[in-house]
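Contributing new records

If you add data, match the layout below exactly. Sequence lines come first and carry their own label; structure lines follow with theirs. Keep one chain per record. Anything else will be rejected by the validation script.
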Amino acid sequence: METATTDTAFRARVVEAADRSVAEFLATHDDDAAALPHRAAMGRLLALAAVTTEPGSAFYGSGADGAGDGAGGVAGGDSAADGTGDAMRRCLDRLEQLQGPTGLFDGTNLCSPPDSAFTLNDACIALGVISALETPGKALADVGARLAGIISRATDALVAGGVHTPNHRWELCAALARINALQPRQDIADRITEWLAEGIDQLPDGMYSERSALYASAVTNPSLLAIADHAGRPELLDHVRRNLTAFLPWFNSDGTLESVFSRRQDQWMDFNAAPFLPLYRRLANQDANPDFAVAAAWLGTLPLHEPAKLLALLRLDPWLHAALPEETAAAAAPDSTLPVPLAPAGAALETCGAYRFRAGRAVTTVYGGCDGLVPGVVSGLASNPTFLRFAHGAAVLSGVRLSRSFFDLGPFRSQHTVRDGATVRLSEELSANFYLPLPAARRREDGVYALGHEGRFSASMDFPGRPTVVHRLGTEITVRAEPGQTVLELDFDGADTAFALELTFRPGGVLDGVVPASGTPGAFQLVQGTGSYRVGADAIEFGPGLPADPDTPPAYNPGENYRYLAGTNASEGVKVFITGRTAGSHRLVLRGSTEAP
């Protein structure tokens, strides 16, 4: 690394963005430090430590020996820069106040080792930045000493503590690895070894078990990098490489990253891809990986995520501030704003049931990897019923869902997904019972039976002991990505009931060919022919529609698991419904077009 060229333009951009973010909170939010949660207080302290110790920052030196020591010139004026010393002390006061007798921090999860580990990882980064200074000055030395005390008081509890999600193990190990590098203890190293002995939870296609872009970028990959660096475990980098390779085809030209297949909260989000920048940049330079370099260069065009923390990491990791290989500046793929390595013709995440097809400006994403929702909708399961997305340039159909009126069991979620070339078949089999009288041997004189859950609801009915009358509904959806269009075919078997196919478009365009949906304010219905949704020169045509019928309402039903709690998983956007009956087959064609300039 001694011979690597520093990317001065990139570093200057990071410094400028970090200065802006610090100036903003100093000017408008610093007085609330006494009420900040511990992670926010530490994040603010890390940001202050990064800019006040960075020679290129307008805040450089302002916290070295107290407030008002030689800084200024940023947005917000000299007074913002002059307050950095006091701001750091207020953050430290808050952290020490929140640190309980065990050394852990309280939050939503009380005395939580993993939640404390997030804060302590940032504390170690901040302490590393300060410790790297030849002459930090008394004020920064005091900050470093207080940080060291916070870290030391928490160490025993982190070593002994537990977790409750998969990524917490690696966040905890990362904090322990950083602490051990600063304050070495054999029991810390032993605990890291014990956690790692469980094995990294990586699926065959490179996703981690949570299948989450959010946690891959914010927790698991950064943690594995930290453990590799600070605990001498370079083999962990292979997991990061595999995960970053798996994500390459799933970036979108609008700066988001597909996350519909996640088992965490980002399955409901348009996930901003920017947090992946330091991950791709690090391994692009360390491995001379051209695809990662292309990804890093493209991600670098997006607004920076947490620029002050990124600045601190640049200071501590020379791979991050090194210039990307020049030969990796790839041209955009044909008819796309994405570079070629991020826009292959096809991509698959088999363990997630996710598939992507590109043709010209059209991108088709098919998803059939939901987890079984037994006993119901719970955190940690992939349950997003969006099974199809289609985009043509700026026109985006962000989700297609299917509701059926069948015992309030909720929207279609594929139970069996098979890909054959550019065709993906999704299928689901639902059943619901009516229960007949109990046989004589199962009856009780007192009429009180054990409380049980039969799949839809709970009652004291002795469900297992009763004969049943079964109703069933089979649904098969076939998606074919063809040149110039994507074709969707619905096939039903079993109960004859109503269905509603919901198309949700990203706001900002103009609908044509539809009518207002009866009973669903703000929504529309395609009752005949073909509709279109246009954004600028790009359009998505969709159809054919089906006639309106009062017995086939145009509405989305999230299912009883949500509605019983007055909740919903409804998506947001411009909604168009196509309704009909679950008899026979129905066909929908999605076709993209672009007007010539």
